[in-house]
Fold CRE2A protein.
Amino acid sequence: DLDECASSPCKDEQYCLNTDGSFSCKACDASCVGCTGEGSDKCKTCASGYVKEDEKCTDIDECNLPEKVCMKENEDCVNTSGSYKCVCSEGFEDKDVTCFQT
């Protein structure tokens, strides 16, 4: 078997998987910018919103940072994979640029 992966035939956001007589390109984990294999522990560098912790790229919980990320009154922070979103608290709805009581 010729190791086709030796010539790095895959795109930047993929890793090469050698198979008998062939190879396949697999997508890197969402937490990675470039990778050497499957999973968040094989990242070359961590994507934005992720930090290297115990040799893995893990999500940063922006909602638990000391500095508030959602600044509007009656607005809650919801952590998402690699990011966060700001939503109006329960009983409030987004009107123009503020959260009004419903």
The two ends are 67 Å apart (CA to CA). The beta strands are 14-19, 22-27, 32-35, 43-46, 50-53, 56-59, 75-80, 83-88, 92-95, 98-101.
